[in-house]
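A favour, since you know our structure tokens better than I do. Just paste the record in under my message, thanks.
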Amino acid sequence: MKQLKTITLYCMVALLAVSLFGCGKKADENKPMADVKAEAEKMNEAQLKAAAKQYYDAVKAKMADLEKSMAKLKDIPPLEAVGEEAKGLQADIDALNKSISNLKTRFQVYYDKLVEKGGDASGLQL
């Protein structure tokens, strides 16, 4: 019985730690460029590749969302193209384009620094 309580306690602590700290950093499209550049200067090759990969994955995810929104907009009949649904989709598309641009800019900083340091940038081409 005591062993079961101990295991349950460890599981609860592990779940709490994961929920509080998450599984790692996420790509931040709003991080100031000065901070991104300063951070990249201090990173080693492995850290640069990991940061570039986070932004790469975020760009790919946003691009998939953009493609879905564009497909929905394309499916709207011409007579409804000026309606609220189309306006909402267009606003979503504009926001996604801005987000992708911000993510790509930050990705490029980490990618360029990785290449500059001679690191392996394979699989990170956008």
